[in-house]
Amino acid sequence: xxxxxxxxxxxxxxxxxxxxxxxxxxxxxxxxxxxxxxxxxxxxxxxxxxxxxxxxxxxxxxxxxxxxxxxxxxxxxxxxxxxxxxxxxxxxxxxxxxxxxxxxxxxxxxxxxxxxxxxxxxxxxxxxxxxxxxxxxxxxxxxxxxxxxxxxxxxxxxxxxxxxxxxxxxxxxxxxxxxxxxxxxxxxxxxxxxxxxxxxxxxxxxxxxxxxxxxxxxxxxxxxxxxxxxxxxxxxxxxxxxxxxxxxxxxxxxxxxxxxxxxxxxxxxxxxxxxxxxxxxxxxxxxxxxxxxxxxxxxxxxxxxxxxxxxxxxxxxxxxxxxxxxxxxxxxxxxxxxxxxxxxxxxxxxxxxxxxx
Length: 357
Description:
Layout: E1 4-9, H1 38-45, E2 55-60, H2 64-70, E3 79-82, H3 88-102, E4 107-112, H4 120-136, E5 140-145, E6 156-162, E7 175-181, H5 186-195, E8 198-208, H6 209-219, H7 221-232, H8 236-243, H9 252-257, E9 263-267, H10 278-282, E10 286-287, E11 293-294, E12 298-301, E13 307-310, E14 317-320, E15 325-329, E16 334-338, H11 345-349
Parallel strand pairs: 1-2, 1-4, 2-3, 5-9, 11-13, 12-14, 13-15
Antiparallel strand pairs: 4-8, 5-8, 6-7, 6-8, 7-9, 10-11, 15-16
Helix pairs in contact: 3-6, 3-7, 6-7, 7-8
């Protein structure tokens, strides 16, 4: 499948997993699960679908060195640091331009670098079907996750009927997308779940270059023009440096997906976790006495439902009479937080001195 490309989005900040994560090392570059980092796993899952020379990684200047340490199987020129923070739509347009310069008829996959997926075989089967559909139609294809609860922190995709694709044979037949729904309040999320026909928006997109450029030119002309400039550029680095910081920050959902002429959704058959907080990490730690979850041996007395994570050897953490805490220990930082406020850890990060970010 040499005509297939992938763009991995590997930027972001290191706020939710402080003190383990930092600006130079967000969650996709961390060893959280006693195995390859999430970025490394994302690259490995593409083996057999996209050749290494067709995989691009988009990151930022702070994280570029960390990305290069992990992505050693890719050509050096395929790792690109964005010169400014501009959200997902400009990043995706950058990826489209880079792929279009290589092959203006290619089909490409957009993937976040920070999602945990263990069932590689199912992931690859879904992606192969998505590439087949995108190559044979004028549709933008999304991957949806079947909701397991009424989560208000995810965007949702409202699906219609199964698509009629007479000339396309795939195992995972896509649905027509009615509309994208922004992150709902808890009550509306509950309505989505009860209604059925909704998927979590996983931020995975598949499309052909001709189709996505036509849609960008129609609905986001600034981004379409930038992608076309990259495609024709004789000095890609200079074009990125000059034009990317001038792009309007916005999400790819708002700029393109909510307005596109035809969007199809394939429901994932693989496991999926966006690992959004220490609560998510806890599911993969050992559960010891009194429902304490930890990656190290701890001593616990009259303490329940705590999350303990340490990357320090030779230092024992002991809990006495405390419940529902997150305790994270690194060489230069110690976090003690109420587990019910895990999503607010970024408020602590905002008050930290520069050297601890």
